[in-house]
Structures are given as structure tokens and as C-alpha cells.
């Protein structure tokens, strides 16, 4: 039976404080959907309107997000991601002291589009390799996209990435390319924009259609300023917080 309001402290505040402690303690993970409010009200031994008031207060405090028709979700803690000329994922992971990786979702050999040929310095229709990747931090996917290489500029990288895909190994692209002899990799230009997610992004990142993604498009050069690859990544807006260094040109 649901308890009635007690003197002194409002019952909804008790429920609010208990649920907040459970979230802080890891009972519910970032991004996780809570049980329906009717079920939670029964578990907490309170009326449904009391439970709803506690949930609304947590939403107002940024602890939860409530989606119409879908329920209540624990707010994701965004990953602070610096985008600099020589600052890539590896450096951000070390700075935050967290575990993370990129895994290969697929490797496609295809002909270069007009834009890709311009960026990579090859003829339109020239052979390229698209390496589709997902980025995870702290065991949670925070990004998905692709790195596009000119096969003539990076001989052997296609076969290496295909081997990594077959073996399901994780990787660092900057470390991989440095092992293959490429030095001084740096981001020359960056385009940052926001848009609705594609269906594939919704599925891989497990996000809703109404959550915008932040898209980064970067041109990566080597130490001699020759184009190395084109990087196109998308991140849920609730999971990353970007900081731009002064040495990156926005384009």
C-alpha cells in the first residue's frame, strides 16, 4: 500500500533522494532506461503521482531525461574531447585516465568521389579504402564513422585493416599508421556540425531519433603535409563535449 505524506519532509523528496543515491551508486548506468513509473511507484511503496514528482525533480536537475512515450533515462556523463592539431582519441583517453578504443565495423574498397579525390590528392574514381569504425569510452559507444584512405598513398593499410576486422582487434589509427612508417600526423582542418542521426547511427549508438549527433570531418596530414586520410565521425550530443584547440583551422 502506498504511504501518505508524512509531516516534515515530503514523501516525494524521500523518493527523490533515494533514487538519486541509487543512480550515484551505479544501480542505474548512464543512458539506462528506468522501469516504468508505475512499477517504480510499487517498488518504492508510494503513489504514482509521488513517483512522478520525484522523477520530474531529477529531470529538472539534469540527472534524468524524460522522453514522451518512452520513459525516463539516466543522463549520460559527457566525455570531454579535445580536438587539436595533434590531439586525437589516444591523448584524450590518457588525459581522462579512462579506457577506450576503436573497433573496425567494416572495410570497403571503393572509387573516390569528387570531394574525396580533392582532399586526398588523387583522381576522381581512384581506388580508396573506407574503414568504418566505432569509438568506445568506458565501455560505451560514443562515436561512429569512417576513415577514408587513398590506396596509393597508404600501401598495405587495406590488408592490415581487413586482418584487424577478421580478428576483431581494437586499434588506434594514429598508432597503426606510425607503426607503418607515417610520422607527424596532424589534423589540418576541421568541420563541426550538428544534425539528426541516420538509422545506422541510431542502431550502433543506441540513441533516439530526436537526439542530434555532432559530426566532425577532419583532414589528416603527415609530417610532410601530404594528405593521409579523411576522417568523418559522428557523436551523440549527450555523450561528448568538444573543446577546440587554437591550432585547428575550421573549414
Structure description:
The chain has 251 residues and is of the alpha+beta class. It is built from 8 helices and 12 strands. The protein has 2 domains: 64 residues, Orthogonal Bundle (Arc Repressor Mutant, subunit A), CATH 1.10.10; 172 residues, Chorismate lyase-like (Chorismate lyase, 3-Layer(aba) Sandwich), CATH 3.40.1410.10. The strands form 3 sheets. Strands 7-4-5-6-10-9-8-12 form an 8-stranded mixed β-sheet. The protein has a two-stranded antiparallel ribbon with strand order 1-2. A two-stranded parallel ribbon has the order 3-11. A hairpin with a 3-residue loop joins strand 1 and strand 2. Helix 1 crosses helix 3 and helix 2 crosses helix 3. The longest helix is centred in the first third of the chain and has 14 residues.
Can you say what the CATH homologous superfamily of the largest domain is? Chorismate lyase-like
Give the tally of structural domains: 2
Biggest sheet details: 8 strands, mixed
- How large is the share of residues in beta strands? 25-35%
Query: What is the class of the largest domain in the CATH system?
Result: Alpha Beta
SSE succession:
HHHEEEHEHEEHEHEHEEEE
Q: What is this structure's SSE topology?
A:
Blueprint: H1 11-24, H2 37-44, H3 48-60, E1 64-67, E2 71-74, E3 79-83, H4 89-96, E4 100-111, H5 114-120, E5 127-137, E6 140-150, H6 157-167, E7 170-171, H7 173-179, E8 186-195, H8 199-205, E9 213-221, E10 227-236, E11 240-244, E12 249-250
Parallel strand pairs: 3-11, 8-12
Antiparallel strand pairs: 1-2, 4-5, 4-7, 5-6, 6-10, 8-9, 9-10
Amino acid at each position: 500500500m502506498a504511504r501518505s505524506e508524512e509531516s516534515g519532509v515530503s514523501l516525494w523528496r524521500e523518493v527523490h533522494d533515494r533514487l538519486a543515491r541509487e543512480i550515484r551508486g551505479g544501480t542505474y548506468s548512464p543512458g539506462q532506461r528506468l522501469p516504468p513509473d508505475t512499477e517504480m511507484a510499487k517498488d518504492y511503496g508510494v503513489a504514482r503521482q509521488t513517483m512522478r514528482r520525484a522523477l520530474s525533480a531529477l529531470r529538472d536537475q539534469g540527472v534524468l531525461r524524460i522522453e514522451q512515450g518512452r520513459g525516463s533515462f539516466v543522463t549520460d556523463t559527457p566525455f570531454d574531447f579535445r580536438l587539436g592539431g595533434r590531439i586525437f582519441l589516444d591523448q584524450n583517453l590518457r588525459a581522462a585516465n579512462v579506457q577506450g578504443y576503436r573497433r573496425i565495423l567494416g572495410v570497403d574498397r571503393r572509387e573516390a568521389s569528387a570531394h574525396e579525390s580533392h582532399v586526398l590528392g588523387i583522381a576522381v574514381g581512384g581506388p580508396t579504402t573506407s574503414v568504418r569504425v566505432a569509438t568506445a569510452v568506458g565501455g560505451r559507444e560514443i562515436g561512429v564513422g569512417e576513415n577514408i584512405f587513398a590506396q596509393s598513398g597508404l600501401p598495405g593499410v587495406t590488408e592490415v585493416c581487413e586482418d584487424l576486422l577478421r580478428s576483431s582487434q581494437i586499434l588506434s589509427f594514429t598508432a597503426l599508421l606510425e607503426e607503418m612508417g607515417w610520422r607527424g600526423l596532424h589534423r589540418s582542418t576541421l568541420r563541426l556540425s550538428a544534425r539528426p542521426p541516420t538509422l545506422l547511427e541510431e542502431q550502433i549508438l543506441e540513441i533516439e531519433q530526436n537526439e542530434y549527433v555532432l559530426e566532425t570531418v577532419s583532414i589528416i596530414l603527415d609530417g610532410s603535409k601530404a594528405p593521409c586520410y579523411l576522417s568523418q565521425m559522428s557523436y551523440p550530443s549527450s555523450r561528448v563535449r568538444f573543446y577546440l584547440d587554437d591550432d585547428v583551422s575550421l573549414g
